[in-house]
Amino acid sequence: MIARFALAVPLILALCWAAGLALANMRADMTLQHAAREMATWNSVRPASTSESWSWMRSDLQEAESFDPKNPVIQELLGVLNARRIENEEYQGEAVVHFSKALALRPVSPYSWANLAEVKYRMGVTGKELEPMLRTAARLGPWEPVVQQIVADYGLAVWEEIDGETRAAVEQIVANGMRRNPLAMLQISERRGRLQVPCRHLSEARRTPDAKWTILCESTEATQ
Prior knowledge:
Order of helices and strands: HHHHHHHHHHHHH
Number of strands: 0
Radius of gyration: 18 Å
Strand content: under 5%
CATH topology: Serine Threonine Protein Phosphatase 5, Tetratricopeptide repeat
Mean pLDDT: 83
CATH architecture: Alpha Horseshoe
Shape: elongated
Number of helices: 13
Largest sheet: none
Low-confidence stretches: 17-24, 44-48
CATH superfamily: Tetratricopeptide repeat domain
Helix content: over 70%
């Protein structure tokens, strides 16, 4: 999960630059770009650098927010930053607030919808309440690798609780993921006990995964 958030940060920054986003305050602009670059260096080996760097990063982004409170990228990064503190319910709640603000300002961001679904799931939200987030993320970002992994992971986790429309959206995301990164989809699905879903799309994979997955997909358990 932490690694996925790390992957999402440079994508968010790229979208910001690609859109030619102009911030009202140069100081906020510089803070935003510096924060995104720093967060992009965090990974599963160095999840959040140190608590000290996490704290000053949060402080800087909050300052940028005070200059430009209606900037969805700042809200997104604050959401990502707080979401990383998975051991703290208070920070998870703050992540929800910031992702919700980001969506109010930019409702077409698949990353915001996917990140919100991930945090909500960690806070115990499943089933019906999670469905619109999963469906919207899938609809807006059908070919975004980070979105694919999040929707597949949590969609398959609540598979028995979701309706046919949401199942179809999750399966389509898995099918899309199988074309580009079949190993990630297979590993996620195996962990969730839903290997049969990607196995239905194994023939669509552009890269052939390890032979063990073909054997698993041909097994009775996977095809049930």
